[in-house]
């Protein structure tokens, strides 16, 4: 009897060891700090140069026609190469991609800061976008695979969402400070020591979640996907300075859509697709992607208008303008860490997203009602605080939904798709809202029979009123887009709260996996 029962005990022990999940990495919260720092560099660099642009233009002799390339060169390469960058991280290792992205970004920033002419600065900004496209999806996918417990995941995404949302405002503040007290070149040089610190932290604190061995890169898919996105982003950038019916704009936009159609068809046949289509076919992720795209369409232009309003209409300095955004940053952090992070594992994602977007739309209504004589305390402050609170509650819930329930070897593709939606959405928003604002300003001047070329005080006052009217019309449009995003989230995103998913799975039929379907648990589709 003893001989037959003794061997059973070690078998049971081994089975339990095999079924038990690996213990969490004790350095994961330090790793989150490193990932958040890297994400801040990427997001911050999209706005920090905006406030420094007038000084850079004067110093390097840029024309009004080509100065836009300081911004466009970065967004073009960043948005166009994100899918490729995400897939490279899946295939060759996220930690490796993360570190290479940081080093390359720092080198490109140093080159931009040392630029001797416009061409060198444009090239450096494009190079920054290339390495940002490698860095951003690696950062998000590493965080997603590191934090799988619903409660910890909520806290982690709270920090990440706050960084993603507040980075733009922090960039404006940093850009104003560095430009006013040092010089515009430090808006690029500052990335070097920050990136170096992040590299050291990554080497020490981050654990590579692994890579997919034996797979090949979809070269044709990479070419088609990158060309399609680049064409659309470039077309939208050109639409800001040309008419929407311009031949070049239409050719770029239509051509980009056609190429992306061919890309989609190829992804159904490729052996190792760049973007596995089941990632975007999933109802929850599709809703999160579309929601984030609409939100960035609405928000990018508003920040631009508000900056021009404070500096151009109110005559504020770059530093004072940057400081004015600080309350929004604080509210965004509160919305992410004190609201979403505490509730994400308890309530469905849309219960956070829909009210958050409604609050943000209310903030936009405050900004849209501004006139030339509006004050910071009466309109700007309540508007940006409501926007910050709403966006903070929205971002982390949408990001978590967009990257949940994805196989580990496809996290890079899912993360890159989310980043691409944001980049393309930002380009669409800037072009669309700029066009709406310019058209509304022209109509106002025509209706009031004002000649903006006149230099009289009356003409200048009227031009200021017309400009603010244009901003108002565009901001009301943004509020409508935000409400549309709330409707999209309500219709598409119907996933249960993680705690309810776990309870439902645990109460399922005997023999089922109690972890199946929980947020953060990988699901291998296809």
TrEMBL record:
<protein>
    <submittedName>
        <fullName>DHA2 family efflux MFS transporter permease subunit</fullName>
    </submittedName>
</protein>
<feature type="transmembrane region" description="Helical">
    <location>
        <begin position="156"/>
        <end position="176"/>
    </location>
</feature>
<feature type="transmembrane region" description="Helical">
    <location>
        <begin position="122"/>
        <end position="144"/>
    </location>
</feature>
<keyword id="KW-0812">Transmembrane</keyword>
<feature type="transmembrane region" description="Helical">
    <location>
        <begin position="218"/>
        <end position="237"/>
    </location>
</feature>
<feature type="transmembrane region" description="Helical">
    <location>
        <begin position="380"/>
        <end position="403"/>
    </location>
</feature>
<feature type="region of interest" description="Disordered">
    <location>
        <begin position="1"/>
        <end position="23"/>
    </location>
</feature>
<keyword id="KW-1133">Transmembrane helix</keyword>
<dbReference type="InterPro" id="IPR036259">
    <property type="entry name" value="MFS_trans_sf"/>
</dbReference>
<feature type="transmembrane region" description="Helical">
    <location>
        <begin position="188"/>
        <end position="206"/>
    </location>
</feature>
<feature type="transmembrane region" description="Helical">
    <location>
        <begin position="69"/>
        <end position="86"/>
    </location>
</feature>
<keyword id="KW-0472">Membrane</keyword>
<feature type="transmembrane region" description="Helical">
    <location>
        <begin position="29"/>
        <end position="49"/>
    </location>
</feature>
<feature type="transmembrane region" description="Helical">
    <location>
        <begin position="98"/>
        <end position="116"/>
    </location>
</feature>
<feature type="region of interest" description="Disordered">
    <location>
        <begin position="503"/>
        <end position="526"/>
    </location>
</feature>
<keyword id="KW-0813">Transport</keyword>
<dbReference type="Pfam" id="PF07690">
    <property type="entry name" value="MFS_1"/>
</dbReference>
<feature type="transmembrane region" description="Helical">
    <location>
        <begin position="351"/>
        <end position="368"/>
    </location>
</feature>
<feature type="transmembrane region" description="Helical">
    <location>
        <begin position="473"/>
        <end position="493"/>
    </location>
</feature>
<feature type="transmembrane region" description="Helical">
    <location>
        <begin position="322"/>
        <end position="344"/>
    </location>
</feature>
<feature type="transmembrane region" description="Helical">
    <location>
        <begin position="249"/>
        <end position="266"/>
    </location>
</feature>
<feature type="transmembrane region" description="Helical">
    <location>
        <begin position="287"/>
        <end position="310"/>
    </location>
</feature>
<feature type="transmembrane region" description="Helical">
    <location>
        <begin position="424"/>
        <end position="445"/>
    </location>
</feature>
<feature type="compositionally biased region" description="Low complexity">
    <location>
        <begin position="505"/>
        <end position="526"/>
    </location>
</feature>
<feature type="domain" description="Major facilitator superfamily (MFS) profile">
    <location>
        <begin position="31"/>
        <end position="497"/>
    </location>
</feature>
<dbReference type="InterPro" id="IPR020846">
    <property type="entry name" value="MFS_dom"/>
</dbReference>
<keyword id="KW-1003">Cell membrane</keyword>
<dbReference type="InterPro" id="IPR011701">
    <property type="entry name" value="MFS"/>
</dbReference>
<dbReference type="InterPro" id="IPR004638">
    <property type="entry name" value="EmrB-like"/>
</dbReference>
